[in-house]
Design brief:
The complex is a heterodimer. Helices cover 63% and strands 4% of the residues of chain A. Chain A is built from 17 helices and 4 strands. In chain A, the strands form 2 sheets. Chain A has a two-stranded antiparallel sheet. In chain A, strands 3-4 form a two-stranded antiparallel ribbon. Chain B has a 7-stranded mixed β-sheet with strand order 10-22-21-20-11-18-19, with helices on both faces. The chains are: A mainly alpha, B alpha+beta.
Chain lengths: 577, 689
Amino acid sequence: MPDMEILFDITGMLFLLVVLTLLVKPFGTYISNVYQGNRTILSPILMPLEGLINRAAGVKQDEEMDWEEYATTLLLFNGMGLIVLFLILLLQGILPLNPQGFPGFPLDLAFNTAVSFVTNTNWQAYSGESAASYLTQMSGLAVQNFLSAATGLCVAIAFIRGFTRHTSQTIGNFWKDMTKSVLYILLPISIIAALLLVSQGVIQNFDPYTNSSLLQPVQTSDGQTIVNQTLALGPVASQEAIKEFGTNGGGFFNANSAHPFENPTPLTNYLEILLILLIPFSLTYTFGRFSGNTRQGWALFTTMMMLFIVLLGVMYWSEYSGNPLVKPVASGSYLEGKEVRFGIGGSVLFAVSTTATSTGAVNAMHDSLTPIGGMVTMLLILLGEVVPGGVGSGLYTILAFAIIAVFIAGLMIGRTPEYLGKKIEVFEMWMSVLIVLTSGILVLIFVSVALVTYFGISSILNPGPHGLSEILYAFASVANNNGSAFAGLNANTLFYNLVTALAMLIGRFVPAVAALAMAGSLSKKKYIPPSIGTLPTHQVTFVLWLAVVILIVGALTFFPALSLGPVVEHMIMNAGQ
Amino acid sequence: MENIKTKETTIFESGLLRQALLDSLKKLNPVSIWRNPVMLLVEIGSIITTISFFAGLFFGSGEPSWFTASVSIWLWLTVIFSNFAESLAEGRGKARAESLRKTRTEVMAKKLIETGSKEKYELISSANLHKGDCVLVEAGEMIPGDGEVVEGAALVNESSVTGESAPVVRESGGDRSAVTGGTKVISNQITVRITANPGEAFLDRMISMVEGAKRRKTPNEIALEVLLISLTVVFLLVVINFNSLSIYSIQAAGQGTPVSITVLIALFVCLAPTTIAALLPAIGIAGMDRLFSKNVIALSGRAIEASGDVDILLLDKTGTITLGDRQAVEFIPVSGRSEQEVANAALLASLTDETPEGRSVVVLAKNQYKMRLTELPHSARSIPFTAQTRMSGVDIDGNSYRKGASGAIIEYVRSKDGNAPPELEESVKSIAKSGGTPLVVCHNNEILGVIHLKDILKGGIRERFIQLRKMGIKTVMITGDNYLTAAAIAAEAGVDDFLSEAKPEDKLRLIRENQQQGHMVAMTGDGTNDAPALAQADVAVAMNTGTQPAREAANIIDLDSNPTKLMDIVEIGKQILITRGTLTTFSIANDVAKYFAIIPAAMISIYPQLDILNIMHLANPYSAILSAVIFNAIIIPMLIPLALKGVKYRPMPAEKLLMYNLFVYGLGGMIAPFIGIKIIDIVIRVFMH
């Protein structure tokens, strides 16, 4: 009954989005209370702990940083994290908690993986269960899952302060922001989510992998009969929660959230999707609270949600229509690369959520999506990760888009442009352009190089336009710190390990530093009260205009690439070739 | 010089046109095009396609040579059109500057050897006069340089600067002491202290401003350029990316030919925001020029843009909101007298009174009360106003008619054994309360009534304030009047706020307070005591009749000395920004159609399936690409009139205005090229057959 299936899918999607929207206000309020130093429900438990950490680290209560100091501290902190993780990966063979006895990572893969987790990308050129020890997973990768998400939060909050402070030299204290992010926001919900996941069957143990015999022996193509399989185990639930909640996406297992130990039931599937979307969408409300006008926050929320729903619709339609060359499986729908337990709805919603945020976890193989479905995931990434984008990074990127939109719209109404009472001048333009265009420029350059070099195309497993899509997807994913992949690309080569690491570093830290620099410049400016001639940035016209600017910048930059990849694939598929 | 404010120079005047064409060729020099990086890249592209055309002639190439040639020609034209827009805008300024320059003739000046003594002077050329020199200027002589009258008073013809032929009074001390070099003394002699060194005079500054010689890009213009250059860099990478994509796709599809360099450059030029980049300099220069045609000189481009942001406007009451002088509007009788009687006595008391108030009484009596008397009998003796008596009037055959301040008249009738009727006080008070000035009229020892003198609002001032409010500008009236009078006039004029009993330092304080709260404040002024406030204001308009300190503190000079000019200035400031914004939107929106023209055309040999993107059904790949290039080029000259005249500014709420402009220039910009490219393609098809 396909009609019933559509009804079921759409109800599920709507239900999730409504729950999400209802959570945005309370959770956004909670976040703003945390950073504004107000009391929250968790204060009684966490305040003493926070004080202890601050005292131990020697952080003074009211010491603030200007943007240069904030940015330097942030870079050094992330640099240290990078080195530590790099060493753990190299040396895991001689470190404890390694029941399977995995050797250390090769140099280039260790570097790539360390960069990947520090930049909140979680591009995985290794396969989790057959390369990483429990120690690596827990104290290396999971720690960076927290810290990289917290870094994004810090930049976003500092950026918001740039708008809301007037004639101020400082934009906050990185150490305090970092402690608050982990302690008040990421940890509590991750703990709750991990317990919920365990209750649904996600595993959490330190046991060595077990062997079990198959109920139905499998015959391989070269005539061998397989009767046993190895079941990879480990502390999965604790990592699963922060993987989604911090929009990290690095799976414990190679199959990521498609693996039954990571994502066993439709319920965990929806829970994980909710975790993915919660912080990025809620931050818009936090922004509104900070700026004293929650409608400004809702305007950004609406822009994000509008694009999210439209692209979700396109993808669902495309996946539901399927490939005319493939006979639908029994349930009546096109399920190649998808898990039957999630169905089309659960798979499409997860795919859109994971690419719309910079998560990159997958519960279906994006490589097997229909060309248009695959294009939607790519487009969501290529739009710059703003619909709603990663933890923190989504907010500061869409704010940079908003500044560009305000600039042009401001001119069109005859005012030198201002946003939230701050004049947008040459410096702000440079920084906004850096935030918005850096990842696009990286994609254009690296795709151009990869397509015409031997090292680039030799990794392609599928020839033809789909190979092009795979390379495009790979660089879109790393430059925008998403981390998911069209799996049809052999990414663990020296070439890909180095260039993707480079793209991840630039794509993460150039916009972040630009956002901090702009925060510094904005906070120094004085506030201009709105008048009747001021461009209203919380009304329908502006919301639509912002959405158009986001779409146009993305479309104009990637029109040729998308035409020659997914669009051509779609034509070829429809022509029945 | 002839009158500079004669008719607006038409855009396509033939002389200007020829000069602009010549200049646009000269500007192809890369050194001069350097200032416009987007167009520099287009020029480099043109050079490459031209080379590839000649290379194709000698070594052969994969595409027809007519195609490469046509693309090259149209790319060159794109650059030339852009230069032409700028030259045309500059040309108009240059023509005006030329006529100004003619007035700057060198004259021999009588430089006083000792200050104070007019006997000893030496004759030196005006070009050698320096700041602080004192010169003597007599009737019929040209004032040799900008300066301040330190002694004497004279009538000066300033038409060379203002275009106004009626001479004006210039005298030492007070607010009318500034004189401009190149203007002519008509009567009397004055001693002038020179206040500007050679080359720095007002006229020189004016010339360099209208010429655009010293024109610096404004911060807003630079911010827009940042965006345009960034987009251009992205599009450059898109084209490089496109090249790689096509190389890979040929392998993938096993067919097709690589995209030629001509097509790549054509794609780049079409995508780059050439339309706005080409017109950007012209928009700024033309805005300056439009101001000038309204007889306003902006001393910096920044000031004009800032004026578009002004949200508080400080206006002096006298001369700005009201006519300079009060006028009689009503005769109010007391003690049972009729209005006719009051009018008659007031008329008699005023016939010899040459003050504007006196004249207004005569006018009122004649118009409203049909008084026919025009001349007094010979026996009449007129009594002029003095500061002691505070009244004026006439004595005719033993009858005395007086009008004056109520206190003075009451005292006068009492001295003749008359007394003041009880209702007089009430009438006087009610007039004062309404913001007017009461003048009491008496005949011998009897008080007949009261003349109501009123501040008369300038015609249309209310409407202008309504318009200002729609623009989002708050008006504040500044006056030395007491609170009651000020409140009454403020209410009548419809200003948003007022400052009564204002002293010069109050103005400065008011501006500072408002700026502290983030407002952009504009003010107009002419007196020396306005100078500090002018210097503080974001947009400071000085009257040309004002003093030298006021003119130096200001960043905009109004040659007509008409304070409501600020509204025109604000409007032009907004127009400049709107024109930039709308053309940017238009330019970027155009790209969508160009993609649909070029990508399928360039890819057809590799993926014939992509013909589905050829939604305009263009004839063939070559004509498709050429059509896009031609459209991209000819849109520039088509938009020159809009760039020079500016997009019309309609005062309406920001949200509505944005919606309107997005609709016209955003959506219009998206659709127009689909139509334009299709039409050009049809024309090309005709030529090819």
